[in-house]
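ok so I'm stuck.
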Amino acid sequence: MSQPVKPPISADDIDAILPQTQCRQCRFDGCRPYAEAIARGEADINRCPPGGLDGIRRLATLTGQAFRIFEADAPQPKPRELALIDEENCIGCTLCIQACPVDAILGAAKSMHTVLGDECTGCALCVAPCPVDAIRMEPVTPAVEGLSAERSALARRRYQFRLARLQREREEKAARLAARSAAPAPATAPTAAPQSSAANMLDEQKKAVIAAAMRRAAELQAARKTGDKT
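replied:
not stuck anymore, here's the structure
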């Protein structure tokens, strides 16, 4: 008698186990791509530090793979952390907002930003882009590893909502550009600059704003040091 064929493990089942920090320490662009790679047999199950050893055990049970600890040279599990923004040094460049995978940072250009503690997954992706080192990671008290099932579900929803929002914004931008290109130019209007030139100008303006803010932040830091010495 032939044995029943075991159905393949779905990416949905694997994704449900992952902590949804979207930290990319697994070297994939988020938890879902990592889950899909495991389902295809293209990734090991011991590459998710936020999931900890318990996460590896659960993935091993689900997939039938042997339990293996984290590689010695790979990122290791540690207590959960939250991002905190230094209000005095924040220059409002919005780079951290763009980096956050779950929209857990609020703020506007040239305004101080703040982290929504209940929404932050501790991925630390906002730290590196900050040009003035105004973001630090602080351990959660009391110490815990990873995210609870409830927090993981919330993080997944926020991540999916962000992806949908970014896709919608790209489509709306493309539609606006298409409509602008299709519309006839007024006879008396001056010749419009090429779109690429306009985009480059906006990029240069943004860089100038960030550079000026960084100079102001450096001057404030230098003034504080001088004051401390006197």
